[in-house]
Structure formats: structure tokens, C-alpha cells
Design brief:
Radius of gyration: 21 Å
Number of domains: 2
CATH superfamily of the largest domain: Metalloproteases ("zincins"), catalytic domain
Structural class: alpha/beta
Distance between the termini: 50 Å
CATH topology of the largest domain: Zincin-like
CATH class of the largest domain: Alpha Beta
Bound molecules: zinc ion
Helix content: 25-40%
Strand content: 15-25%
Strand order of the largest sheet: 1-2-4-3
Order of helices and strands: EEEEHHEEEEHEEEHHH
Shape: globular
Amino acid sequence: MSDFPGVLRVGDLEVAVSVSERRKSVRLTVERDASITAVVPSQVSRTELTKVVEAKRSWLYGKVAEKRDLGEAPPDKEFVSGEGFLYLGRSYRLRVVDSGDVRLIRGRLELARGGGAKELVDWYRRVGAPWLTRRVQPWVTRIGVEPSGLRVRPLGYRWGSCSRDGQVNIHWATMQLPPTLIDYVLVHELAHLHRADHGAEFWRIVERALPGHEDYRERLRRTGHDLWLPEEGR
Ligand SMILES: [Zn+2]
């Protein structure tokens, strides 16, 4: 006997379950609104379904993040004093001042009146370039690659990319993440300089450089859609 339909919770995932007499196996779907549904054969138990969901956990997180990215974005910024902006995983309040370039000073992010997304995106890129260039060094040694350069730029919904000639690109929006998650993005891109695909060998390189990388990956997926990603910076 099935104990469904109903809602099944697995960790922080919530799955709406319905039963179909005709199904022979479980079908998991992430809907457009990022909700998860399962259609299950009538004899499937709660324990069995939990196992199936657990086995597909990273896939589900990925899909949920994807749908959220495409769906509702975090609220738009208004660029008024007191508004919070993330930098290296910490929130800094904005202070609108009369003039000057964007700068982080005494725990406040200063923005000249009339400025907005463009000025702030430029700031993330400006501070991101030297910060990432320093941060990447130990990983370069550890992974044994020689990137030809590192650029901070908009990359759509990707965290990073790299080109055949060894150029590594990092999305400016990663500067909002905590440093340990930025490390994961860097390691991921550097590992691609060895292997272009996401095959087993690629993940071995990542794991060797950053043990427990799956945990970072999952955290990145969950944090990702909370970041500020204005149209001007995509
Ligand atoms: Zn990749």
C-alpha cells in the first residue's frame, strides 16, 4: 500500500507526491516555479521514495536553482542609503553621498547620488580583479596549470568560463559570495584547463584540490539565486 499522495520532505527539499497506477518507476520533475513533484507507482513506500530523492539530490538542487534563476529574481535595488549589498559574503549598507567613485569605507558602501547598477557593477569588477588575481595563485600552484590571464566580467548565469588559450573568466557577481565559495568557482575553472568536460577525471581533479567539493557545489547552487544580478551586469 502506498502512503501517498501527500508531501514528502527530504532535508530542505519538499516534494509533492501523486500516485499513478500506470507508472512502473518514480518520476521526479522540477516545475517552472521551482517546486518539485513526484509521480510514483502505487506500491512505493515513503522510505523508498526518500531514497530515490536523496540519490537525485544534487540534480534536483541544480534544477531548482536553474528555474529560480529564470523565474523570479531577488527584488530590485533602489540605490538608497541603508540598502544592503553583499561583498565577500557579508552585507554592507549603502551610503548615498554627493560625489565620488563607489568605495567601501568604514563598513559602508558609498555611492554618488544618481548612481546605480552600472556604477556598482563596475565597482565589483574593479575590486574583483586584484582580489581574484591574488586569491587564485595558490590554486594555480596546487592544480598545476598556467592560466594566461584572469578577467572579471558579466557571464550571464555562469559563474565562470575559460577559453582554449587558458584565459579564465569569472563573473563579477561571484564577488558577493563568501571567499570559500569563490574558491570553488576558481578551482572549477582551473580544473577545466586540464579537462574541458565534466567527466570523472575532471571531478577527480576538483576533489583533489578541494576535498569535499560537492558540499561547496551544493552551497553555491543554493546561494546563487539570492545574489544581485541586475540586467546591466548580465
Ligand atoms: Zn564546468
